[in-house]
Amino acid sequence: MRDLAVEVEHVEKSFGEVTALAGLDLAVETGTIVGLLGPNGAGKTTLVRILATLIEPTAGWARILGHDVKTDQLAVRRRIGLAGQFAAVDNELTGFENLEMVGRLSRLTPADARERATEALERFGLTDAAGRRVSTYSGGMRRRLDLAAGLIGRPPVVLLDEPTTGLDPRSRQELWASIEELRREGTTVLLTTQYLDEADRLAQRIGLIDHGRIAAEGTPAELKATIGGRVLSVHLADPHELDRAAAALAALGADDHPRTDDATGEVRLAVADPEVTAEAVRRLDAGGLQIAAIELHQPSLDDVFLALTGRPAEEPAAEEARE
Which residues, in sequence order, are CB contacts of 74 under 8 Å at separation 6+? Predict the structure, then answer.
């Protein structure tokens, strides 16, 4: 039997005529980081809001450490930390005052609230800015302070909804290091993201979410293995010839229709035999199609998502939910 911190079964959620979740199932083992990867509008934020008891599911059930999110909301709230895409901190207070206030709201004694605020500021590299008003913080500092606030009560489960959206590369790396430290300490983390590299680096297991359901789930290696073999990437000198190139290469890959990217002038297809590279060059040459670059590489999570859904994970869904 697995020790599960988060359990979700057949959860549905609709907003009027918009279906955000359509029977989603998910299990998160205690002490792991599980990533939900998908485009905007796929249902990721809706699921986090349900688990945080901010909204109720239309159907199905979900539990945090055995406590139902509908019938035992207070117990759930006492066991989770939450940080979203936008830092929920008070701009008029200092960093220290924000954390101290959250500590007091978490029913800590004044002394304990001050102690944990000091510890959290040090842990997230904010000690030097502890006495500054948050309105003077950078975006990355505000996001780290928001995560620190969510951990003041030392929750065993942390819900992170696209926590690095809009951050610069350095701030993302710093936040990633903090999230990895949480796992090493035994905290369970459910992370939603639309960034492939983020899911690949942080999560032990990944769920690809599309149209309100889990399209596939597994370790990063297991998901990439579903593609089979490798991926052939061809960049054309003339991007306007993508359709002709895709037609010429169609029979070489596992996909009936190679994927094309108008912005980069690229054709990508999964191939079982690396030897097809030479044949691809011959076919393109025979069609008078000039190659700018050709590469054979291991499949990425984006290749997996494309194969399953027909669109990149970082592309907004057409039916983006009005949550």
Answer: none
Q: Cβ atoms within 10 A of the Cβ of 107, count?
A: 10
Domains present along the chain, CATH in parentheses: 4-217 (3.40.50.300), 228-298 (3.30.70.100)
Phi, psi for residue 230 in degrees, rounded to 5:
-130, 180
Is the pLDDT assigned to residue 11 strictly greater than 60? Answer: yes
Strands, sheet with 230-236, edge to edge from the N-terminal-most edge strand: 259-261, 266-271, 230-236, 291-297
Residue 130: pLDDT above 60?
A: yes
Residue 45 contacts residue 316 (beta carbons within 8 Å): no
> How many whole angstroms separate alpha carbon 238 and alpha carbon 276?
22
The phi and psi torsions of 39 (rounded to 5 degrees) equal: -75, 170
Q: pTM above 0.70?
A: yes
**DSSP 8-state class, residue 136:** G
Sign, CA torsion 281/283/285/289:
negative
